Every structure is written in structure tokens, then in C-alpha cells.
Amino acid sequence: MGGGIGGLAAAALLGRAGHRVTLLEGADYLGGKSRRIELDGQRMDTGPSLVTFPGVWDELLGRWDALGDGDASAAEVAGLKLRRMDEVGKYYFRGEVVALPVPEEHPWRGAWERFAGLHGGLGPEVTRLLTADPLDRQTLPALGRLLRTYGPRLTTRSYLDGLEWLPDGLREVIAIHALNAGVSPSRTPALYASMPAIMAHDGVWTPEGGVYEVVLALERLARHAGVEVRTGESAYGIWEGKVVTRSREYEADAVVSGLDDGRLEGLLAPGKRQTPGKLSCSGVAVYAALREELPAGVPTHGVVLPSNPEGLYRSLEAGEEPEETMAFANYYRPGEVYPNDRATLALLLTAPANGREYGLEDSFVQREVERVSREIGLDKPATAYFGEYKILHPRYFGEWGSMGGALYGEVRPFWRSGPLHRPRYNDRRRPWLWRVGASVHPGGGIPAVLGGAMISTGRLLQHLGK
Ligand SMILES: Cc1cc2nc3c(=O)[nH]c(=O)nc-3n(C[C@H](O)[C@H](O)[C@H](O)COP(=O)(O)OP(=O)(O)OC[C@H]3O[C@@H](n4cnc5c(N)ncnc54)[C@H](O)[C@@H]3O)c2cc1C
Questions:
Q1: Does 175 map to a domain?
Q2: Residue 143 to residue 179: CA distance in whole angstroms
Q3: How many domains are contained in the chain?
Q4: Per-residue pLDDT tens over the stretch 341-358
Q5: In terms of domains, do 392 and 325 share one?
Q6: Listed residues 174, 203, 232: the one ending a domain
Q7: pTM of the entire structure?
């Protein structure tokens, strides 16, 4: 159930192992949070824009190959071409502008080199923890190296605060990456502090053609493996051995859910009112085809921080709109990433998971679009460049996802976010029910979702084999 990146990856692997797999996707398109739209005839992929930890994708291809009979190679079937971006991004914080990796001439260079020296090489360890079963003893060396790096300071916040030699600005630029998990640095494990250094060392990547190519590649792997893909078929009830949609009942030996956990609970106990706890953040995402190119010097990936990050974390905790938020500005010139003849701009504003619909006229959106435009060097609001545009908001993200549009569901204790915890792949009370997707490995984006799908289906295959 669920044709997002997690559900598709699981279906592709189970099908390749010789099982008869039906994938049910409620929406009329595959990809879930990753989607492709067209504005003024220009391609724009909504949702994720970057692929990190490319070794996870390679591992998925290797597993698909190993499960089959060698009739085709996963790399050829998938046909995904990842391209490394020149830099992780350009960061704007309290008047300071800095690229990651921090360039030679910047005053933070020395501290960055020291930090990158400690963390930049941890990519293979994190990739291992993302893709290997936590019960596999072979993960112990990777786990050991990570734990030795952080010592007793267990959260991103406490770890970074302990590095007194970090300039405050650089500390906040590093800490804000915790929001990729939808929560503040005091709610993520110290591991999140390493992310920007690993991303700078191992690269951030975009598939040629846009990130939706990942969804298309997974769909090709699934279909090649014989998976029956059914869009527009929403599951509304699950019992042992049965998934019920509006039009049919499906018999199943095992059910794999790629749905948000809260949504799954609703299907397991229809009619029972769900009362969620604290929610991770949502977003307001503005996508626009531009009438003219932005001035030279506007970066491909800009990250604009709030001047008071603590204030943002507090507002998100309280479920309130922040005074200033963290924003990504992804600007692709004609022919860059997408095969477009015009430039496109995506502005992603971190927002509380309040389930609301937003438009350009909302004061929060207007205020932040103007601030981001100023910071990235525009002399007028980005909206002045807009041709056709589309806004996605917490209500949109909540439609098929978590309550309130929370991108990573409910907030969990810091030790249950990221690859260091023991996720609930299988339901002990319901041995036929398996989980994949962002709810299993919250806060890691595409690599965690793919890794979780590999681990969960690995266990399910063993279970079915018995
Ligand atoms: C704005 C934004 C930016 C992001 N940026 C990045 C990034 O740059 N890099 C990165 O790695 N990650 C990024 N992410 C995170 C990444 O997109 C997600 O982690 C990933 O796509 C989640 O995949 P999933 O399969 O777990 O969930 P989903 O994509 O939510 O898939 C769940 C699927 O289940 C379907 N479904 C729900 N209910 C039912 C039902 N009853 N029956 C059948 N189907 C159902 C839904 O329609 C959906 O297709 C971003 C996310 C967003 C929203």
C-alpha cells in the first residue's frame, strides 16, 4: 500500500524475489511527496530536490540484481543518471553569506576544515547504518565509530554547543540541518550534526531531468519485476490476509504499508479517532516558471536561515507560524537539471503542521518571499518574475500524508529519529503486516526511505521463506 518512494522500492524488491506483488496507490499518480508538474510548459518536480548518500541508491540496485536471475541489470532498467551539484548550497544568516564547503577566503574556513575533518568521512558508516539490518552484527564497527565521534553529547544541539571553537554563525548553519528531520536540533541525535560535512564530502546529487526520475526509475524496476501497479486505488481497510479498496478486496499473504504511520493506524482501526501528539514541521512550497532569468549570482541552491533560529524552533514546537523561517530557494536556469527552455524557481518555506491552505497573499508567505528575495540578491520580490505558479501547503501535504501535513509525522524522542534506532518494520501483534517509508526511518529523506525499504523487505523475505 502506497506508491511513494518507500512503497515502490519495497514492491520492486519483493517482485524481483519472485513474489506476486500488487501495489495500491490511492492518488492517481505515483511518487507521493515526490511529484512532477508542468507550469507554463516547464517541468518542475515538487517535494524532494536533492539526493544525498548516493551509495544507498547503488545498494538498492545491487540488491535488486542479487534477487533476480541475471536477465537484466538494475542499473540499465532503472536508467537513473545522478549528477553531483557544484556545492551543497549557499547559506544566508544574519548578513553572512557562505557556501558549503566553506571556501578558502572565508573567515570560517579554518573551523569548517576542522569540523569537516571530524565528520566529512562518516558517509560510508551512515550509509551502512541506513541500509544494513540493525540486528546484523556487521553494523557494529560503523555504530562504534559514530558513537566515538559524538561521545556523551547525544543531541545535535548538545554536541554542537560543546564545540567551543565553532563560530556561532557556522554552528547555526550546521544545526539548522536538523530541520530536514522536521524537528529542532535538540530533538535529533548528534548524527545530524555530521550531515552537512558528509554532504560536502560525498556530494549532493540531482538526477538528470529532476528528482522525480527516482520515482520513474523505481517504477521501471517494479514493473520489470512483474509488479502490478494500480493507481487511484485507495486502501480503506486492512485485515489479516485482506486489503479492501472501494472497488475490490485483495487477498494477501503479507501487507506492506508505505503509508504514514498515523494513516495506517486509521486503516487498522477504522472509526477510531486518532489523536496525534506533537507534529514535525510541514512546509509551504511555491513553484514558479519564470518570465525572465534572475540576476547572475543567484545560487542554484540557496538556504536562508531565520535571524533567530531558536525562535523558529519554539514556534514550530508550538505549532505557530514563525516570525522568520528557514527557506530553500532552488533556482534552475534553462537546461539546468530540467529540459526546460525557461528558468524555474522553487521556494520552500518551513511551516508548522497546521493543516492550513496558504496563498501568495498570506502575510507569512508574502513576508518570507520578500525576505528570501532580498537575501539571495533580488532587487524586487521573486513574485515579480513569476509566470505560472503553484503553491503546496500543509493541507496538500496532509491529504495523503500525516495529520496537519507534518512531513515526518509525529515528533519522536531524539533516539528514535535517524538510523540509530530499532525501527518497527514488523508488527508483532500482526505478523502479516510490514512497514516501509518515512514513518519507519523518520527524518532521513530519500536515502532513509530506500534503506528502510531494503531492511524491511529483507526481513519479510526471510519470514515468507520460512
Ligand atoms: C517539500 C519537500 C522537500 C523535500 N526535500 C527532500 C530532499 O531534498 N531530499 C530528500 O532526500 N528528501 C526530501 N524530502 C523528503 C522525501 O520527499 C520523503 O522522505 C519521501 O518522499 C517519503 O516517501 P514515502 O514513500 O515514505 O512517503 P510518501 O511519499 O508520503 O508516500 C506515501 C504514499 O501512500 C499513498 N497513500 C496514502 N494513503 C493511502 C491509502 N489509503 N491507500 C493507498 N495509498 C495511500 C500516498 O498517496 C503516497 O503516494 C522532501 C519532502 C518534501 C515534502
A1: yes
A2: 23
A3: 3
A4: 999 999 999 999 999 999
A5: yes
A6: 203
A7: 0.96
Residue 325 belongs to what domain range?
A: 282-400
Could you tell me what percent of the chain has a pLDDT over 70? Answer: 97
Beta bridge mates, 36: 45
Does residue 412 carry a pLDDT above 90?
Answer: no
Q: Which three cell numbers stand for residue 187?
A: 530533538
**3 state DSSP class of 113:** helix
Cα(66) to centroid(ligand 1), Å = 27
Name, in order, each residue with C-beta under 8 angstroms of 332's C-beta and a sequence gap of 6 or more.
300, 338, 340, 343, 344, 345
Residue 114 shares a structural domain with residue 193: yes
Q: Whose CA is nearest to atom 5 of ligand 1?
A: 48
SS3 177: helix
Mutate to test the pocket of ligand 1, among 29, 400, 425, 434 (most ligand atoms within 8 A of CB): 400
Look at residue 264 and tell me if it is in a domain. yes
pLDDT(110) > 80: yes
Give buried/exposed letters for 157-182 (b at 16+ CB in 10 A, else e).
bbbbeebeebeebbbbbbbbbbbbbb
In sequence order, the β-bridge partners of residue 301 are: 330
How far does CA 58 lie from the centroid of its chain? 18
Say if 301 falls within a structural domain: yes
How large is the average pLDDT for residues 247-256?
Answer: 95
The band of 324, judged by pLDDT with boundaries at 50, 70 and 90, is: very high
Cα(4) to ligand 1 centroid in Å equals 5
Q: Which of 369, 400, 431 is the last residue of a domain?
A: 400
Q: Span 36-42, mean pLDDT?
A: 98
So what's the pLDDT on residue 442? 63
Q: Whose CA is nearest to atom 39 of ligand 1?
A: 26
**Mutation choice for ligand 1 from 5, 33, 57, 436, CB with most ligand atoms inside 8 A:** 33
For ligand 1, say whether the CB of 264 is within 6 Å of any of its atoms.
no
197 shares a domain with 151: yes
Q: How confident is the model at residue 418 (pLDDT cuts 50, 70, 90)?
A: low
Residues 163 and 245 in one domain: no
